[in-house]
Design a protein that fits this description.
By secondary structure, the chain is mainly beta. It has 3 helices and 22 strands. The strands form 5 sheets. It has a 5-stranded antiparallel β-sheet with strand order 1-2-22-21-20, with no helix packed on it. A 5-stranded mixed β-sheet has the order 11-12-13-14-18, with no helix packed on it. This is Esterase-like activity of phytase family protein.
Length: 319
């Protein structure tokens, strides 16, 4: 006896199910990033917005970008708190406006273990800095430590971390790490208290760490650092508040004279460059500076937490 043919509604349902399965199995498409217009900053603002990029997490393969470095040749390197690295070429037009990302490469970030520990305990990469010899430094939290990489795709090796770093909260440790113009390393923790209203930090290098404190903007916490060629630095701050529609971000500048004068017990603070009202409401976690055609540019990136309500953004500014 022949089987009865599916009725029209059943045929439609089967067709929709099949198309959905095909769509789910189809490879991601589209560019890895699409241009965004400049932010409407005041004419007298110390920074000029050059626009940005909306990152396509599906095409890139992951999100959660937490550390950023862009060199003077527009080579972009980023790390993710999922334990991945990304390399790409930042494409700019003649005016410096971002147009996209090209020549993408990515892979797993070595945590120094033959087999990574369960979850994110050994791979939660949060900060990225570059040494004068070209090696990358990566700061990890959960398992608080610093590793040095000849290339971001290499195996890497452990580096002596500042004393007392192991006392940092599980998910609030090595968010900010920079190699200053004079060669000193600057480390500021996200949640290890020095005293009420102050966070613990260090300046120096392995074997020669000097403890200090950082005073964040009330309600904010530091999430990344980048050096400036004049001996200063830029620092990103971030806060999260459910009642204020989620994340807010700020960009501070730390003048060179403050960094030059650091001694044991110094309290460091920054001056506001970009306020929370001037930046999109996203989870700002990465900053880098670089030279381009005689100008100093600043790149900032968000961590989208691989969550559908958040965006991966890369914004560009000039001094």
């Amino acid at each position: 006896m022949p089987l009865p043919r599916p009725q029209a509604p059943r045929r439609l349902a089967l067709a929709l199910l099949a198309s959905g399965l095909l769509a789910a199995c189809a490879p991601p498409h589209g560019p890895p990033a699409t241009p965004l217009p400049p932010l409407p900053l005041p004419a007298a603002h110390p920074l000029r917005s050059l626009g940005g990029l909306l990152l396509n997490r599906d095409v890139i393969g992951f999100g959660g970008l937490s550390g950023l470095h862009v060199d003077d040749n527009l080579r972009l390197t980023a790390i993710s708190d999922t334990g991945r690295w990304l390399r790409a070429r930042l494409v700019l037009d003649e005016a410096g406006h971002p147009q996209g990302l090209a020549e993408l490469e990515s892979g797993p970030l070595s945590d120094g273990l033959p087999i990574s520990l369960p979850g994110r305990f050994s791979v939660d990469a949060e900060s990225l800095a570059r040494l004068p010899d070209g090696r990358f430094l990566v700061g990890f939290e959960r398992w608080h430590r610093i590793r040095a990489y000849d290339g971001i795709s290499s195996w890497g090796e452990p580096v002596e971390a500042p004393p007392g770093l192991s006392a940092a909260p599980l998910n609030a440790s090595l968010e900010s790490l920079a190699v200053l113009a004079d060669g000193r390393w600057l480390v500021i923790t996200e949640g290890l208290e020095h005293a009420p209203g102050l966070l613990r930090g260090w300046v120096g290098a392995p074997g020669a760490w000097t403890p200090l404190a950082f005073r964040p903007t009330p309600g904010f916490l530091p999430t990344d650092l980048t050096p400036l060629p004049d001996g200063g630095a830029l620092l990103v701050e971030r806060r999260f508040n459910v009642w204020e529609r989620g994340f807010r971000g700020r960009l501070l500048r730390i003048p060179p004279e403050r960094l030059a004068a650091l001694t044991a017990g110094s309290v460091l603070a920054g001056d506001v460059l970009l306020t929370e009202a001037e930046l999109p409401r996203e989870n700002w976690e990465g900053v880098s500076t670089f030279a381009w055609q005689g100008r100093r540019l600043v790149a900032m990136v968000t961590d989208d937490n691989e969550f559908f309500l958040q965006k991966g953004l890369l914004l560009l500014f000039s001094f």
